Amino acid sequence: MDHFLYRDGVLHAEDIPLPDLSAQTGTPFYVYSAATLTRHFRLFDEALEGMEHLVCYAVKANSNLAVLRLLGGLGAGADVVSGGEYRKARAAGIPGERIVFSGVGKTREEMRLALGEGIRQFNVESEPEMEALNAVALSMGTRAPVALRINPDVDAKTHAKISTGKSENKFGIPISRAGSTYAAAAALPGLEVVGIDMHIGSQLTDLAPFEQAYTKLAALTRTLRGDGHRIVRLDLGGGLGIPYERSNSAPPLPVEYGHMVRRVLGDTGCEILIEPGRLIAGNAGVLVARVIYVKHGEDRDFLILDAAMNDLIRPAMYDAHHDIVPVVEPEPGGDSVTYDVVGPVCETGDTFARQRRLKPLKEGDLVAFRSAGAYGAVMASEYNSRPLVPEVLVSGDHSAVIRARPSFEEMLNRDTIPEWL
Ligand SMILES: *Cc1c(COP(=O)(O)O)cnc(C)c1O
What we know:
Layout (H helix, E strand, L loop, with lengths): L3 E4 L2 E4 L2 E2 H8 L3 E5 H14 L5 E6 L6 H9 L3 E4 L2 H9 L7 E3 L6 H10 L3 E4 L2 H13 L4 E8 L21 E2 L3 H9 L4 E7 L10 H19 L6 E3 L18 H12 L5 E4 L3 H4 L3 E12 L4 E5 L8 H5 L5 E3 L10 E6 L8 E8 L7 E4 L21 E5 L2 E6 L4 H6 L8
Parallel strand pairs: 4-20, 5-6, 5-13, 6-7, 7-8, 8-9, 9-10, 9-11, 11-12, 12-13, 15-17
Antiparallel strand pairs: 1-2, 2-3, 4-14, 14-15, 14-19, 16-19, 17-18, 20-21
Helix pairs in contact: 2-9, 5-6, 8-9
Bound molecules: pyridoxal-5'-phosphate.
Pyridoxal-5'-phosphate binds next to helix 10.
């Protein structure tokens, strides 16, 4: 459920009509619903009720400071994958003790930053990283809390570009080597082993791969404890999917995920961390765009929008589907027409949808891409020298621009022409 609903035929973000926001901000822009973000965070928090747990929001899904401030204020921790994300989480007021640091390529500088300011745990993904973290911690006279990210070799049955838990993926330590790697970690004086971490992929629409992975995790917990390791925390990663197409059957709910976690891992007595990103932010945002032209091609009609692949890259990158809806509801009845929905960028890949059935649209009409709150604005670029797409947050009848569109002057000033040219 989200808070983008039609009232009197006009799509609203909570209590604000999208045409009003468009008039203030100009298109294209992202708009997020505080009520939806709050609701989704609480669904996860409640799903794990009764188990010691922390929901560490995956910052990479939507890292706007206002979004982080809102979630942090509700008690969320953060899962970060770079020094930049760590700084953003801290700047938004999330304390270091609630931040976990993931990623295959943490640099020594990033380790130093997080160790200096506080960190709940590093999710370590390889032996060389383990050695580096040990050295950094010792040089700072401290010990780094670590979980090793174990690659369980399960098929998440999601898009290949966001599947991370198969043995051929770059992520984690192969489960077959877990025993020896934990032994090596325990021998390093700069590390304090606290748990085990897994993250098998994103946009999973079925609980079965999670259950397979967590069953292996439960067994590994017993084995490692048998070897004398202190395993008190299990980080289960993120990955629960969202319904991008309203017409499709819905993926499992957080509460069902929570039941499964309790059934498979409840008797380990471990604290449970989860790292949801997409499910918290995805349906909490839409991208609003305007029709520039309707172009009648030789064998198809193109709806040319003022949003492009640089603003929302998911269709080009993952062949992702986003529902596209008119901001002003058309009169009931009347035939649908078929469009290729495209942006102005000079690439054929700048196509949001092929042969999409929509009610007829005309120049100047507003449309909204649903489910665009996660992996939307964070992946935007200024390709084709298009200004970075702005972001707006709505709560009830309040709205605020939480990232302004840069002016062309600001964009020009970022580049420097050397004096010798
Ligand atoms: C991307 C990522 C997540 C979040 O995944 P979602 O599918 O957005 O829930 C969590 N943990 C790690 C380590 C990730 O890389």
